[in-house]
């Protein structure tokens, strides 16, 4: 069971489904389903029920997400645990997020190299600044992963400098980061969305980059492709499946905000695990084009309740009770 986030963007759903197609080819011995937390159908429960109806005795659920923030730590476990509690005769196991993985870093490097090849200008890496963009969450542990990915790519690929930014929720946002980095004097800026799929957020990142290119014509701005269905992405999903087959993997929770170490989020420690997507399951795509639920803010791109969604504005320490059990 491949568990996706979901998006109001039809292209994002198509790309997620493309991932499922690749995995079906790689894993012919497995009955495979996929579903979404919100904004798209089928929802995760539909996929789980479909596997059960076809006679599955064991279900291995994998998060189709890069990092462990609220969805991986809270919402997906809540969905999986509820299903497992209602079906005690089934063995249901939950895997870990893709995380920071050498294969994904290699895939990222190749996407950046693709962008470099589109340029007709000869600019060295030493004269290039890399801007890595993450989704942005209200979980500092997940946000810090973007900083690590940035540093790994910076040193590994030999860029003159690197910065990171976020598409929402966390700061700096991409537009502010682009304004800042152009002052550093590099001839080229490569903007790389560290995302699995397209969607409202990726398209906004590219729009911000185009706007910066118009404001600063003396700097070359290149838009790198996101990860999408790179073969190494597929390989990483297979690795996560093999972990589940071999045992019960655990995510690295050392700096999780639901533990005491996360400064500024002390009130989240030990909070009750609960999902937060009842109101947006299956809505917002072409299946339900007008049913946007109570969380629209008039901006045309999603709702904002402190997770890694399609947000507009960052906010500080959005303390919600979505703890989890380790």
Automatic annotation (TrEMBL):
Renumbered residue ranges of the record's region Disordered: 274-326
Basic and acidic residues: bias regions: 284-315
Record-linked InterPro entries: CbiX-like (IPR002762), Sirohydro_Cobaltochel/CbiX (IPR050963)
Molecular-function annotations in GO: lyase activity; metal ion binding
Keywords carried by this UniProt record: Lyase, Metal-binding
Ranges annotated as biased composition (Basic residues): 316-326
Keyword Metal-binding: yes
Pfam family, one: CbiX
PANTHER family, sorted: SIROHYDROCHLORIN FERROCHELATASE, CHLOROPLASTIC
Protein name per UniProt: Sirohydrochlorin chelatase
The organism of origin for this protein: Telmatospirillum siberiense
């Amino acid at each position: 069971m491949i568990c996706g986030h979901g998006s109001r963007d039809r292209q994002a759903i198509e790309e997620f489904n493309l991932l499922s197609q690749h995995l079906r080819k790689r894993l012919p011995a497995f009955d495979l389903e996929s579903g979404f937390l919100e904004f798209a159908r089928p929802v995760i429960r539909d996929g789980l029920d479909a596997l059960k109806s076809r006679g599955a005795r064991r279900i291995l659920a994998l998060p189709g997400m890069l990092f462990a923030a609220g969805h991986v730590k809270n919402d997906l476990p809540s969905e999986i645990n509820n299903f497992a509690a209602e079906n005690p005769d089934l063995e249901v196991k939950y895997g870990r997020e893709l995380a920071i993985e050498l294969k994904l870093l290699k895939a990222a490097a190749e996407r950046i190299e693709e962008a470099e090849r589109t340029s007709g200008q000869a600019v060295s890496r030493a004269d290039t600044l890399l801007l890595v963009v993450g989704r942005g969450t209200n979980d500092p542990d997940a946000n810090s992963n973007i900083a690590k990915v940035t540093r790994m790519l910076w040193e590994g690929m030999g860029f003159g400098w690197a910065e990171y930014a976020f598409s929402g929720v966390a700061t700096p946002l991409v537009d502010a980061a682009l304004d800042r980095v152009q002052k550093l004097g590099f001839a080229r800026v490569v903007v790389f969305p560290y995302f699995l799929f397209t969607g409202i957020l990726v398209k906004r990142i590219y729009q911000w980059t185009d706007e910066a290119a118009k404001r600063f014509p003396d700097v070359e701005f290149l838009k790198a492709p996101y990860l999408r269905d790179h073969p190494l992405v597929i390989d990483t999903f297979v690795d996560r499946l093999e972990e589940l087959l071999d045992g019960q993997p655990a995510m690295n929770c050392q700096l999780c905000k639901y533990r005491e170490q996360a400064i500024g989020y002390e009130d989240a420690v030990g909070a009750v695990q609960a999902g937060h997507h009842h109101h947006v399951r299956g809505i917002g795509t072409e299946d339900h084009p007008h049913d946007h639920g109570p969380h629209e803010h008039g901006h045309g791109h999603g709702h904002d309740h402190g997770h890694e969604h399609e947000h507009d504005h960052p906010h500080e320490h959005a303390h919600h009770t979505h703890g989890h059990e380790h």
